[in-house]
Fold:
Amino acid sequence: MNVQDVVTAIQQIEQDRNVSKDIIVEALIESLEKAYRRESGVPDAIVEVKLNPDTEEMKLYRKYLIVEEVEDDELEVEFATLDEGYELGEYYYVEKPIDELGRAAAMLSKNVIKQKIREAEKQAVYDEYIDQLGDMITAVVESVEEKFAVLNLGNSLAVMPKSAQIEGESYREGQMLKVVLTEVNRDTKGAQVLVSRADAMLVRRLFESEVPEIYDGQVEIKAIAREAGDRTKMAVYSHDPDIDAIGACIGPRGARVHAVIEELSG
Structure:
């Protein structure tokens, strides 16, 4: 197995993904250690891979604990058989050629690296969106299926289930939609980010964006009751006696509320 070929292949596969070089290197080291243990047939062998940061050269070592009397020659080496300079309790390093690892080891390495990268990607998505729960964002429709739609958020894809869609709305690829983030998770094989257009929070966020008095806190939305695709009722309260809460939400000639209604497809 040629280590550089493995690194190059993985970098080509993952070139469009936002994964740092450190993640790939860490994954490669772990995968080589696992691959050697499998290839050698010693699952508990003590193995260490060292990387020269300047040359990016990797070396694999089999480590043996230096003991007075050997009980397991797969893990230990006798102190009396070694040259001067070694101490009891230390490790004796024996370099093993990485390039001689077989095809099965190469496949294991690639699989471990891919798994590490997937985990890193999940964590990156989680970290980016977990603090945006309940926020409104503009997304682009990637694809439309029978039970869900896939939306592109920019750095990740999100799923909008049928139950989170406005009844009567139809979507097309490339369409821009305003949605709210309703769920972000990392311990899953399915969608990490879920969004909605049916959630009452979307109405709240739309009014916050259209009505400065709500955004500034002068007018407060007390409650929202929504039947998505049919009707919405909203209770508002003014903290300023000079501001009419309902009038602020309606806006001049109904401009503000009409902007919300238009976004919600009437």
User: Anything to note?
Assistant: The CA atoms of residues 129 and 184 lie 7 Å apart.
